[in-house]
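pipeline/complex-builder :: batch 7 item 3
reading input block
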Amino acid sequence: MSQPSPPPPPPADAPLVNPWSGTRLAKKIRQADAANRRNNRDFPCPNCGADLRFDPGASAMKCTHCEAEVAVPHVDDEAAQEEFDLRAQISSGVELETIQTPSLNCTTCGASVEFDADEHSRLCPFCDSAIVADVTLQRSIVPQGLLPFSKQEKEAQERMHTWLNSRWFAPGGITKNAAEEHFNGVYVPTWTYDANTVTDYTGKRGRRVRSGKTTRISWTRVSGTVTGSFDDVLVSGSQSVSVEFKDALAPWPLADLETYQTEFLAGFRAENHTMGLEEGYAESQVFMRAKIRDWIKADIGGDRQIITSADTRFSDETFKHILLPVWITHYTLEGTRYRMSVNGQTGKVYGQRPFSNRKLLLGALIGFLAMSILGGLISVSSGPDIRPYIARSPATADGNWFNNGN
Amino acid sequence: MDYPIQFAISLLVVIAGMVVAGIPLLKALTLAIEGHKEFEGDSMTRRQKTQGWIGAAIWSLVAIVIWSFFIDWGRAGNIDYATDALAYRVEKLAEAASRS
């Protein structure tokens, strides 16, 4: 049996032609390859080959081994601040650009967090529960910008200690327990929305009218229009972050947004969004409508206000998709885990805090005993007023309730 | 004093009851004060913001009325006087509440 002869080699100067290059499969492979390059979080040190990590506050990456610094390439920040037309985006039906990232879904808090497949520790940074699921590739919207971490982990720890020390009625060993815990640096996906609003309303204005000893409310029908603008209403793109968490860590200096570059993420985790653009906008409108109600009440004036109807028209709605930096840790006290978060830009702290029942008991006891002073003053000062009111006979033989005659 | 043992026991029971009732109120008041200082947005509801203060105010008022009762009882040595004085004060408070 004769072997098939190999094809003749191409001439040395002939251009290399890949017969697959025009196919759809090849296009998909190229797209995936480009996405992988964009999403590459591995930055080897040019000196020793060890991993580079973004160094908060330095705008550079630092080698974990030889401490060599590599500057993050400067990119124009305009892209980070660009506002996109919300209505055009929704009506176009075109999905926002996504990348595939290896991630784990926490079944406890619902967070979807990027994890490398070879990582052994699989604790959810948000709720600290063990994740038993396998790492899978998940689609994540590419953010246009981010606020890079500017506070080091050590500074976050110091801020947390100061915060814990300032808690009233906190248990004694609280800072000691928290000191042993490490922080996770996590970028939280966030939507920001802008809108102009015009609201026509009808309602009633109430004014207090005194007649003798009683006060009644006199109501007048009113109607009017209030206008207002909203700028950068933040809505968390993930369900793992509660509203209190977002507001308690505010304000976020969004003027310092940087254009998204994976260098900023080196050494940190990024959470995937679990809330879409439209869903996020619906949530931002809840906030906007609550504010509009305040504006209407201020516009109605008077002592009391009733809003009968409010018809709001939204226009010039725009959005941004960004990442916000948060240091997260958990500490244990008396068998309970408490979450602490520190704003990675400003260092503002928010956390779950325990109470010391012993201190609360003591506080309530001191408070109650302190009230005895006021109770005593009232008892002594109101004695003469009460005497005519009391129908029963005085206890003492001389006709006085009190032995000293008071 | 007419009922010294009853006086001591009831005072201790009332102190224990008021302290136990005061613990959750103190917690709510602490969270309201800390939240007021630290929360930037509107995430704290009006109820969360005010319930600590309202609870503390009601608890303080009740504590003052209770103390005035026991101090009246101790000073007069007679529970009838203290009971009538308590009824008088409660009536005045109810009048003031209805006026506002």
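note: The mean pLDDT of chain B is 85.
queue -> next item
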